[in-house]
Amino acid sequence: MRKTLTAIAIAAMLAMGSFSVASSFAMQKDKDKKKSEEKEMKSDDKMKSDDKMKEGKSSKKKTLYTRLGGKKAITAVVDEFINVVGADNRINKFFADTVANPARLQALKDNLVAQICSATGGRCKYKGKDMKTSHKGMGITDADFTALVEDLVKALDKFNVPEAEKTELLTILGSLKGDIVGQ
Ligand code: HEM
pTM of the prediction? Predict the structure, then answer.
């Protein structure tokens, strides 16, 4: 009888032991499954963001400055713009003194590049005069302003700047009209 009781007790202990081993094994398996699911989700997210980057659709939208091609591209557009303005009989009289003086011409170009760079999100600081001060007493009309914008469009088109970027830039510069016309 005693032997039987001992045997039952031992059998019960063994059963409990194997139950707890089995349950901790199952819990560990559960944890591993969760971990690998988390890993999969993370790599899924990474793949999605990699795809977006490849398509140029990163959630962080590129600045207009970057989309225009940065400082080098803006400098090329400004150089061409000044050439077009110089050849435009509607408004080139305004720039006669500037064109005749290479240092003054270079300063105007540098100011324009810095102004466009800074206004489009580039890391430049415009150090020139504000628009009201720099155009004071020039008597610039609506028509003069429109002619200059048309010349800028010609320069942008020469470098095949896409329609969206062109419109964005012209909108930014167009907002300065009130400080330039009729000063
Ligand atoms: C959105 C349009 C315009 C912008 C962004 C602009 C920008 C500038 C800038 C940055 C300067 C140099 C300021 C400085 O010296 O500190 C400047 C000067 C000047 N701008 Fe404009 N401007 C615009 C329209 C016009 C128009 C329509 C005219 C005439 C038709 C004009 C004629 C001049 C002249 C003659 C100077 C002086 C150049 C010199 O210093 O020799 N601008 N402008």
Answer: 0.75
